[in-house]
Amino acid sequence: MRRLSLEEARRIAVRAQLLDAERPRDLLAVVERLTFVQLDPTDAVASTADLVAWSRLGPTYDPSDLRRALEEDRTLFEHVSQAFRKEPTVAMVRPMADLPLHRAAMAAWPGGITSYADWMKANDGFRRRVLDVLRSSGPLPSRDIPDTAELPWASTGWTNDRNVTQMLEFLAKRGEIAVAGRRGRTRLWDLAERIYPSDGAVVPAEEAAERLDERRLRALGIARPRAVGDAGEAAEVEGTDGVWRVDPRARADGFEGRTALLSPFDRLIHDRKRALELFGFEFTLEMYKPEAKRRWGFFALPVLHGDRMIGKVDATTDRKADVLQVHAVHEDVRFTRPMTAAVKAELKALAAWLGVGAVRFD
Known about the structure:
It is built from 13 helices and 14 strands. The protein has helices at 6-16, 27-34, 48-57, 63-71, 99-108, 114-122, 124-137, 163-173, 192-195, 205-220, 225-228, 272-279, 337-354; strands spanning 2-4, 37-38, 76-80, 91-95, 177-183, 186-191, 222-223, 233-237, 244-246, 259-261, 301-305, 308-318, 323-331, 358-361.
């Protein structure tokens, strides 16, 4: 059982997420280490994927790098996680090298969910027609694929009767099709055989699950078993209850920190309970709340300083006014002069990367 001080645990977590002073070399190195970068269309400041990359790489990162890696080099691919309870079930960018770890889950989809299996069985003709359209004309957006479903998709939510969208999502989960690229925010779909490597390598399901847990733990440094299973070593952390799992290679010695503005979806603080236990950091994404009920802002950026989370910055990019508009800086701890200077410097660097002329405070 490893025993860690709270400071050691924080430093392990920050270093694992590539947020210490030693920056990674390029985008592929970032995604390979983090295992995935979440995609989200909200761009009050910038898109989540771009903010995550910029916070690690700094001014060398160009958003065109992500498009090129996905659409030309094929070193990354877009895929929705099937690791229920361990990862968000949303669109993510992953290293293409990890595809063999996901193919077994694709082949096993829908994993006993009878409603999905029954709908796909009833719509087998529809499935074959969608694949034929993509084979002859892909890549295509969903709106260019005819809806010829034999049985409409029934739902109480927004997917009700969205038969093409649902079929495409299911075919992607099965590994029959894949996202070939995007036109703006619209996904373009094509046959998986045109996107994925031709070797078809598959890691057996049990081994894949274990290796993904290990990859996830290396990305987090330290986590609860619910997120990483039995990967790594058991650990106790000063001031917290229960057992943690820690990456056996993770160390806190020699840590050198920096100041970073993070996406609200950043993996360092995405697990709110973990963020509270390790960093004493309380945070809620408030974009879905009425304005009057927000404490920190629509798309507040968490602020990392060294191995501590010190506050949130409520900001938006106003391209018409050519400014990064800072509505408020919320201090979780009283900022020292060096903290204030570091946060302002990071805001200035963010504005320069965004290509706007200045930072403006309300």
